[in-house]
Amino acid sequence: MPINIAIIEDDPVLRQEITEYFNKSSKVQCLLVVESASKFKKFHREFMDIQIVLLDINLPDISGTEGIPIIRRLLPESEIIMHTIVNDYDTIFTCICCGANGYLIKDGDFIKLEKTLIELSENGGAALSP
């Protein structure tokens, strides 16, 4: 059974690349792919079994950090993984305090990203970039 994810990413090229990669995967499937937290709220359906949300920080309307509690309300059982280029301790700490389950730095390695999501789904814990 594949892991169901949602992707909230405003960069159209990266959003397309991640979606295309996971569309070829038998282990991870994208149920919802949007460019903003407000679109996530609009198109989210509670019957969707989203297990992991990949959430960018620098979004055009509601920042990823501000979006964490919104997503947590909509999907209390889902893992929220920040997927961002922002790499400073204050932001990481803020995201974790707001309810994020992990923090991964974007590096373009989708194979590694997929392995991390599978490991998180199967074993729990936190997904953190070194």
Descriptive account of the structure:
This protein is an alpha/beta fold. Helices cover 42% and strands 22% of the residues. The protein is built from five helices and six strands. The protein has helices at 12-23, 37-43, 64-74, 89-98, 110-123, and strands at residues 3-8, 28-34, 52-55, 79-84, 102-105, 127-128. Strands 2-1-3-4-5-6 form a six-stranded parallel beta sheet, with helices on both faces. It is globular, with a radius of gyration of 13 Å. The N and C termini lie far apart (29 Å). The relative contact order is 0.18. The mean pLDDT is 88.
Low-confidence stretches: none
N-to-C order of helices and strands = EHEHEHEHEHE
Strand order of the largest sheet: 2-1-3-4-5-6
Give the end-to-end Cα distance, rounded to a whole number of Å. Answer: 29 Å
The Cα radius of gyration reads: 13 Å
For the secondary structure, the number of strands is 6
Main sheet properties: 6 strands, parallel
Keyword list:
130 residues, alpha/beta, six-stranded parallel sheet, 6 strands, 22% strand
Brief rundown of the structure:
This protein is 42% helix and 22% strand.
List the helices and strands and how they pair.
Blueprint: E1 3-8, H1 12-23, E2 28-34, H2 37-43, E3 52-55, H3 64-74, E4 79-84, H4 89-98, E5 102-105, H5 110-123, E6 127-128
Parallel strand pairs: 1-2, 1-3, 3-4, 4-5, 5-6
